[in-house]
Design goal:
Length: about 250
């Protein structure tokens, strides 16, 4: 394992990428409504990347064909956008997105309600988002990745929800995925030690039902094995000796 610490000059470039990322993700989120397709959302994101002169980090990554991952309802992660997938009233959609600026990456995700949603779906969104901020509070030098994962897991379990185990958070910088892995479960004081200068993505992916997921025939899209709803929120943060700095400040 090779964990890299970022210099202040490198952090400045990553911070720039994160601000552009957050602006575009917020704009995409404002388009979410019944009747729009996930393909249209992706086309808008690609257009905005071109206008901002940044690269869509996911497009072409290991062959992924789009700028966004748009996972709807029981879809979990890595869903390929499609003009055939029309969002409907009461859906929820997790929009995961990355950009590259001058060789440095930003990566984050929000889950959006499509119109009026069920109480269960709203609770899942609220709990998943809150677990992210509880995890960010643990992301400081001297703590561990286990402290982050425990903050997520212990909170969501109070509501009967479960974290997905096949997909984890990660380090990030010149590469979209770097060490360390940042699981959404764990025991306090275990895992990798957090040090000032590390940049990581914390991304709780939480299911209403069991944690098991299944990969679909396209080789990317996953869904919950039991058909239950899934939500995801993600921030990219800089580890400091105090509070972590959120580098992807989308609307809370």
């Amino acid at each position: 394992m090779s964990i890299t610490l970022k210099t202040p000059a490198e952090v400045a470039l990553i911070r720039k990428a994160g601000l552009i990322h957050a602006k575009i993700l917020n704009e995409v989120g404002r388009l979410v409504k019944p009747g729009i397709s996930t393909g249209e959302l992706n086309a808008f994101a690609e257009k905005r990347c071109a206008e901002e002169k940044v690269l869509p980090a996911f497009k072409g990554y290991h062959g992924f064909p789009a700028a966004l991952c748009t996972s709807v309802n029981n879809q979990v992660v890595h869903t390929i956008p499609s003009y055939k997938q029309i969002l409907e009233e009461s859906d929820i959609v997790a929009i995961d997105f990355g950009v590259t600026v001058a060789g440095w990456h930003a990566d984050a995700c929000q889950t959006f309600a499509v119109g009026k949603i069920s109480k269960e779906a709203q609770q899942l969104i609220d709990v998943t988002k809150e677990s992210l901020y509880l995890a960010v509070a643990q992301a400081k030098a001297g703590n561990t990745t286990g402290d982050i994962g425990n903050a997520i897991e212990s909170y969501v379990k109070k509501f009967g929800f479960t974290p997905v185990r096949e997909t984890v958070g990660h380090g990030i910088g010149r590469n979209l995925h770097e060490d360390p892995e940042v699981p959404n479960w764990g025991k306090p004081h275990t895992g990798d030690l957090l040090r000032a200068g590390m940049v990581i993505c914390i991304e709780p992916i939480i299911n209403v039902g069991g944690s098991a997921i299944v990969t679909e025939n396209d080789g990317w899209t996953t869904h919950t094995r039991d058909g239950s709803l899934s939500a995801q929120f993600e921030h990219q943060v800089l580890i400091t000796n105090g509070e972590a700095e959120i580098l992807t400040p989308w609307d809370r």
